[in-house]
Automatic annotation (TrEMBL):
This is PpiC domain-containing protein. It is found in: Cell membrane. GO terms for molecular function: peptidyl-prolyl cis-trans isomerase activity. SUPFAM superfamilies: Triger factor/SurA peptide-binding domain-like. Residues 1-30 form the signal peptide. InterPro entries: PPIase_PpiC (IPR000297), PpiD_chaperone (IPR052029), Trigger_fact/SurA_dom_sf (IPR027304). Residues 253-372 form the PpiC domain. Belongs to the PpiD chaperone family. It is a single-pass type II membrane protein. Keywords: Cell membrane, Chaperone, Membrane, Signal, Transmembrane, Transmembrane helix. It holds the Pfam family Rotamase_2. It comes from the Bacteria.
Length: 644
């Protein structure tokens, strides 16, 4: 299992799959994940992909899980295709995840574990998409939530129940995991080791034939290797933007509407008075009276300072607000007193208060006629927004009833713009540096999620101001182009492929010579070809680990071999062959009190707990029994890959 994790973190999709697996079956698997997941589990249908205990996993469940995983991957890698994902082993990993979840559920049922309805209700209540303004579950929002995800109430409850079952059964797998100090120290010595070695490259270009292949040779080769030339999916988007200028006539606010708005905001237009007040709080009434007498000849601040106290100044407040800050009696007194007067003592929750009115801010009220100039533009804007909302709803209704984008554009007097073929990452196909128009930014992801052409939609570009109507005019699936369109590139790749074969043959001879003790550089020099110089490596493992996924594969291999070993590695895309040799492995010296040991111990405990969790899942799967239907699985895999 540890080797699986090491390999997975080095592959293109491995990290996402491993983390997705931990998310799927770990503590975070319940309501939050269901809320954002339209694909995983729940809905029965399709052929049987596997029998798990007394239950079954349908191909439809697997398909939804695969599709959703690819959608999540595209957030980080927009150009990832379903075909790529399957080719990298993603389908098989997701299938294992789905089967494991079913096995956990069957295991729990077998041993009498039960997830109550009230617990499931509490998980549903946590879903943000179903909460109304009062924070409680809104039945209307809940039904919309189910429709958006293609689920019924029973199916969602089953998913949540399975999730909670997995959480209960797997959460304790890593409790109390402890790795002995001696093991940690040994691991630390490996992590801190230093290695020396050599890496030589035999580029395919140095061995490639100089002659151009015949059309027949090239055609045969291209037919067998056309997947190398697959062009990513491209989409052409048609769109038009518009503003509220499309609203020809919006009725002006009526007198009744103006009066209603005035009455609804009467407090805003009434005359008001705010007062800025300073207060000194004393513990007893006697102390307050003495301070008041002293304030007859001094400032309130001076009186407070003489007693080791301070005066608190409140921001300008209305009478009711001041009552909340002090007391009703204090507010009444403050609003009856003239500016500058010190008054009191007044009983307050924390003692006895002396008050001083520092400032009086009065605001004259407005009659309906006086407020009209303010209300009229506000109501006009509101009515225009309401009209625009109604207008947008009418467009959406037209789309729902079968109107095309062309129909609506003609009705609105808009000119449709058609983009050049675009990639999922927003770039224009075949034109480096050129991207999709800025006005498509808010709808681009939606356009690439549409299942087919000619599905018009309406969206906001700038909320309340600018809108866009759009559809996908053309979808060009990911596919290799005709040979004629890439002939020169194909010739170059053909020559490199032939060169790679010759480079491997030469590399095998070099490998044999180096194993017999010959220096790698000397062995390569005998070939008499313009080869890159041999890289002399002298690095600690920690430095290589810091490179993460950016670690060059031959360097990673050098740190995986034993001392004295020599091994070949092919470069990607037929670019050549590496010869990797480890000359020395110098173990790290880690003392028993090294400050890095606690961090190493945490790392080992985390990986060990993951292994325990995987072993527990395997044991559950073995106890309930899981049998795959390979015919149905292979048919689904072929269909998702684009085959017949």
């Amino acid at each position: 299992m540890l080797q699986f994790f090491r390999k997975s973190f080095n592959s293109k999709f491995g990290l996402a799959l491993v983390m997705g697996f931990l998310l799927l079956l770990g503590l975070a698997f319940a309501a939050g994940d269901i809320a954002g997941n339209k694909s995983f589990g729940g809905v029965a249908g399709g052929d049987r992909a596997a029998t798990v205990g007394k239950g079954r996993v349908d191909t439809s469940e697997v398909e939804r899980a695969v599709t959703r995983t690819v959608e999540n991957l595209r957030r980080e890698q927009p150009t990832v295709t379903l075909r790529d994902f399957i080719a990298q082993g993603g389908f098989d990993q997701v299938l294992r995840n789905v089967i494991d979840l079913a096995a956990i559920h069957e295991f729990g049922k077998k041993h009498g574990l039960f997830i109550g309805d009230r617990l499931i209700d509490s998980e549903i209540a946590k879903l943000p998409d179903v909460q109304g303004p009062d924070g409680k579950v809104s039945d209307q929002l809940y039904q919309a939530f189910l429709r958006q995800r293609g689920l019924t109430d029973a199916q969602l409850r089953r998913e949540l129940g399975n999730s909670l079952m997995a959480r209960q059964l797997l959460a304790n797998a890593d409790l109390g995991v402890a790795v002995p100090s001696a093991v940690v120290q040994r691991y630390a010595a490996v992590v801190t080791e230093r290695r020396t070695g050599q890496i030589g490259l035999l580029p395919s270009a140095a061995f490639a034939p100089k002659t151009v292949p015949s059309d027949s040779e090239l055609g045969t080769w291209y037919a067998a290797n056309h997947k190398t030339f697959v062009r990513p999916e491209r989409r052409v988007i048609r769109y038009a933007t518009f503003t509220d200028a499309v609203l020809k006539t919006v009725p002006a606010p009526t007198e009744a509407e103006i009066a209603a708005a005035y009455n609804a905001n009467k407090a805003k237009y009434e005359a008001s008075e705010n007062r800025k007040v300073s207060q000194l709080i004393l513990p007893t009434e006697a102390a307050a009276k003495a301070a008041l007498a002293e304030a007859a000849g001094k400032s309130l601040e001076a009186v407070a300072a003489g007693k080791g106290l301070s005066v608190a100044t409140l921001a300008p407040l209305g009478k009711s607000q001041l009552a909340i800050q002090t007391s009703q009696a204090a507010a009444n007194a403050a609003f009856d007193a003239p500016k500058g007067k010190v008054l009191g003592p007044i009983k307050a929750p924390l003692g006895w208060v002396l008050l001083r009115v520092d400032a009086i801010e009065g605001k004259a009220g407005k009659t309906l006629d006086q407020a009209r100039a303010e209300l009229l533009p506000e109501l006009t804007t509101q009515k225009r927004r309401a009209a625009l909302t109604d207008f947008s709803a009418r467009i959406e209704e037209e789309f729902d009833n079968g109107s095309t984008l062309t129909d609506v554009a003609k009705e609105l007097g808009l000119t449709l713009t058609e983009t050049q073929p675009l990639l999922a990452n927003g770039q224009v196909f075949g034109q480096d540096g050129k991207t999709a128009p800025a006005e498509l930014a808010r709808v681009f992801t939606t356009a690439f999620a549409m299942e087919s052409e000619g599905q018009p939609q309406l969206a906001e570009v700038e909320p309340g101001k600018q809108f866009i109507v759009f559809d996908v005019a053309q979808i060009q699936p990911a596919a290799p182009p005709p040979l004629a369109e890439v002939k020169q590139q194909a010739i170059a790749e053909y020559q490199l492929a032939k060169g790679a074969i010759a480079a491997r043959a030469a590399a095998l001879k070099i490998e044999a010579q180096v194993k017999q003790g010959k220096d790698l550089g000397a062995a390569l020099a005998v070939l008499g070809l313009p080869l890159p110089p041999v890289d002399q490596v002298n690095l600690p493992r920690e430095q290589v680990q810091q490179m993460g996924q950016q670690t060059p594969p031959p360097l990673a291999m050098l740190f995986a071999l034993a001392k004295g070993q020599v091994k070949l590695m092919g470069a990607p895309r037929n670019r050549g062959w590496y010869v990797v040799r480890v000359t020395d492995v110098i173990p790290g010296q880690v003392a028993a009190n090294d400050p890095r040991l606690p961090e190493f111990q945490q790392t080992m405990a985390r990986v060990t707990s993951q292994e325990y969790s995987q072993q527990l899942r395997a044991a559950m799967r073995g106890e309930v029994g899981a049998k795959r239907n390979d015919a149905a699985i292979n048919a689904l895999k072929t269909r998702l890959s684009g085959g017949n």
